[in-house]
Amino acid sequence: MEEVSATDAALRQRIHNLGVHIPCGGIRGPVPGFGPRLWQSCRCEDHPLKWHGVDVSTQYDLCIICFRATAGGVSRWSWLACEDCRAVNSSLILPPGVRSFALGRHSLMNGIGVRGGAPPEVQEEQLARLQAFFRGDDRLRSWRREEYGRLASVFDPLGDVPLEDWQQQWPPSRRASVDAFRRLLAPDGSSE
Asked: I want to staple 29 with a disulfide (CB 3.0 to 4.6 A). Which of 18, 36, 43, 135 is the partner?
């Protein structure tokens, strides 16, 4: 039996729809379509619920680029970005030596791995890319602080906003994804 604090139990009684927890940006609440009230936790809960038999205990996350659409899933083979942001990421024309963003949870989804039988210098390069992937992308960490903070600032800073309300305020679209990438990649973070 999972441990549930009184605070977590009260939260689960109060929240009736999947929503964005404004302090952390996690999506939490009852997951629609999953039988008798399967709960998705955010990291702020006293005892985040861990689901058995899955890689990740979340069905939905905000896209790590636009923070408007959802991404994610319970598998290590899930995407961290929405379909529109993945399409924009794939179409980026970047300077030589600069790679597009790794938007898959697993390194292989991003073309990052170590090929057996490759020459040692190639394997060293591949290992370096793999280590960098595991460390994470500082650009995306900084972007999350800035962009999620900008979008969340219109809501109660301690609240839970139903996902439907969040997306009504910040509609996901290809245009929103293009705008997010434009500002993410701009040297000064501004949009044209």
From this structure: 18
**pLDDT in the model for residue 192:** 44
Residue-wise pLDDT for 164-183, tens only, equals 999 999 999 999 999 999 99
User: What is the 3-state composition of the chain as percent helix, strand, coil, each rounded to the nearest 5?
Assistant: 40, 10, 55
| Residue-wise pLDDT tens digits, 133-156 | 676 678 888 999 999 999 999 999
For residue 87, give both structure tokens.
């399409």
User: Residues 5-15: pLDDT tens digits?
Assistant: 999 999 999 99
For 6-133, where are the E strands, in sequence order?
A: 19-21, 26-30, 39-40, 61-62, 70-71
The amino acid sitting at 110 is N
Asked whether the beta carbons of 45 and 29 are under 8 A apart, the reply is no
Do residues 65 and 85 lie in contact, with contact meaning Cβ atoms separated by under 8 Å? Answer: yes
- Read off the pLDDT band of 87 (50, 70, 90): very high
Q: What angle do CA 69, 75, 78 make, to 5 degrees?
A: 40
What are the domain boundaries of the chain? 6-78+140-172
Tokens of 166: 């969040």
Distance CA 64, CA 83 (A): 12
